[in-house]
Design brief:
Elements (H helix, E strand, L loop, with lengths): L1 H22 L12 H18 L1 H13 L5 H24 L4 H25 L3
Helix pairs in contact: 1-4, 2-3, 2-4, 2-5, 3-4
Keywords: Membrane, Transmembrane, Transmembrane helix
Length: 128
Amino acid sequence: MDDEVTMMKRAIAMVVAVCLISFFSYQLGLPFPSSYLPVFFFINGLCALWSVFNQLVVIAFYEYRIHDHKDTFFQTVLKFVLWPGMILNHHVQLVLCRLPFIVNKALGILYALVLFILSMLVSFVFEV
């Protein structure tokens, strides 16, 4: 019985998260499934830019928010909103943190620029 309630809570949280993510691009006129790509790239770009200055904080923030086992509705919605927005950046930052400082920061800035350019290019496809 408890597992069914947990699964129902997760399903509702996922629906709320999908609606929140899709509302970001609603004013821009992007179609529903395609609205995820510019939001995905833009949020990852913001996290990559933040990682240039506080790399370990961004890694710890992702791990705390995604792997936190609190079972509240808000935490579950936050997990489903943050996961697509930060997963790519998290794995790239784990690789970059092993590199020397100058190479790490240079590749971090390049990575953030590439993500922002990808976000703009995807938006331009839909003539926004």
